[in-house]
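During the reporting period, our protein records have gained a structure token line. A sample record is set out beneath this paragraph:
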Amino acid sequence: MATTRSARTVWSGDLATGSGQTTFETSGIGTYDVTWKARTEESEGKTSPEELIAAAHASCYSMALSNILKQAGFTAERLETSAEVDFDTSDGAQISEIRLALEASVPGIDEETFQKSAQAAKEGCPVSKALASVPSITLKATLAA
């Protein structure tokens, strides 16, 4: 069974000087301003497609890892995942790299099992799969002592 989520963006003007607003329709959590300048320079309180992708990737990865850990008999006390998404305009506009960073507290797990689980989540998370055309997706996974 498929579940559908939706968002909508309304844009006015040209790329360089125009602006838009992206609304999270399904959740109703808000409407956020977007501009080209916020995408390629300082955000100045506005968001970008890359920030939205970073949020989606960090949350999807955390969910995927929590499931993998559960299947292996572990329950995460805390998974803190950040995602940095690079938007490169030097050779045409593209997302050139995504860096995932994880700090985790998982009682009873050994380092090898943790690293294998962390990597499996990176490969298996649906957002990672959707972003497979990104040239580089890296993961730095740290297990708290």
About this structure: The chain has two domains: 7-40, 49-143. The mean pLDDT is 96. Residues 7-40 form one domain.
